[in-house]
Design brief:
Blueprint (H helix, E strand, L loop, with lengths): L3 E2 L5 E2 L1 H28 L5 H9 L5 H17 L5 H34 L1 H20 L4 H14 L2 H12 L5 H30 L8 H21 L13 H5 L2 H5 L1 H6 L8 H36 L3 H21 L9 H21 L3 H26 L8 H30 L1 H11 L1 H9 L8
Antiparallel strand pairs: 1-2
Helix pairs in contact: 1-7, 1-8, 1-9, 2-4, 3-4, 4-5, 4-6, 4-7, 4-17, 5-6, 5-7, 5-9, 7-8, 7-17, 8-14, 8-16, 13-16, 13-17, 13-18, 13-19, 14-16, 15-16, 15-18, 15-19, 17-18
Length: 460
Amino acid sequence: MASEKTQNGKSSSPDDSADKGANRILYVVFLSLVIDLLGFTLILPLLPSILDYYGTNEQDTLYRSIKDSVTGFRELVGAPDTPRWNSVLFGGVIGSLFSMLQFLASPIMGAASDVYGRKPILVVSMVGVAASYALWAVSHNFTLFVIARIIGGLSKGNVSISTAVIADIFPPEKRGKGMAFVGVAFSVGFVFGPIIGAVFSRFARDQQEQFYTTPALFALALAVIDIGFILMFFKETLPEHKRAKSISSGWQNTSHLINPVSLFRFSPVTNTSAKDVSAMQKIGAVYFLYLLMYSGLEFTLTFLTHNRLNYDSMQQGKMFFFMGTIMALVQGGYVRRIPAGKEVKIATVGMTLLIPAFVCMAFAHGPALMYIGLTLFAFASATVVPCLTTLISGFGGADQKGVVMGVFRSLGALARAFGPVLSSIVYWSCGDKVCYLSGAVLLLIPYIMLKKIKGSTHTT
């Protein structure tokens, strides 16, 4: 292949130029996700204060309706009637609603990006997120706050589009690096976003009214910066000649994109061999079952550490900071260097380590055993999802990557919508040990399924 001379006399091949271009886009996507996730996660420490604030307005019909539902659920599972757990369960309802909306929106946005290009749909997604923060800033009642969260959930398609971008710009052997960067962005966001939120939370204690306005405006500012950043620096990765020709060919049938059965079958993905469809279905099922258990036990970890170890909010914040730091180090230093073809092996290792992690948590009555479990938990968090995402990104043609990644993310959102509810039922009905030990045992199901698909995957 012919090479070109650079100004310093060294040769530069077209492949080198392509790599530089892909890396530049990767860094743009990474920074965009970090900015987005800082705004997304800063609300987490504020939720208890926000719910307490809206709880003073007993005239809000929606608040009273959800409160009654939470009370009924708490009584059903035997959770204690304390303000702390009421807030956690209430927050779980809001979180499940957000995940359910992502389940509906992710595949549709992914399919739209296959038709219209990644950049315009990415910008539309971020504009929707910014609008949700703007409404949050003026949400003087709980109903407006929930509407803001609904808009945010329906707009949160940027992650699935970002993974489709990585599938666009990297060949199969280099996609693991790109997916690892997405994981690092999540780790950075979930480490520093809640810290920013905690600062606002402490500030909120001194405010009598509308304390949420400042953090909401801060999140809005981040979203606006993110929009400008993408408009200025993101270069379209799906050229027109590679796009789906029409909405009908890109979306095929909108009902397929919001029907759980169709999603598990990957029905929206067309013009694909039966073998590839079967492989996608297996990877999707593993991803769903893994996240169903993972997200549920991650949610009940707050219950466990408070009840068993008497951790307060600050100690729990330090705990999540510890896990986030390990995840960032593992993803940035290890996962991005995983050779192509080793994704199933590393994901299997991650699931294997998650089983003793749950066992350690089940029997931990002190910080030593708990932090051993948390270390294994963080390693699994850093490896399993990025590896599965890399695997699934190898399927579908150039005009189908958005659909594939959208369906995949949607299955994860569906798991996150139901996981916390199911784990809370087991935790409060059967006890913490049963909850975590049953999670360890049930994790064998996706583990065995993943072992069976080894060697059966295909990359384009």
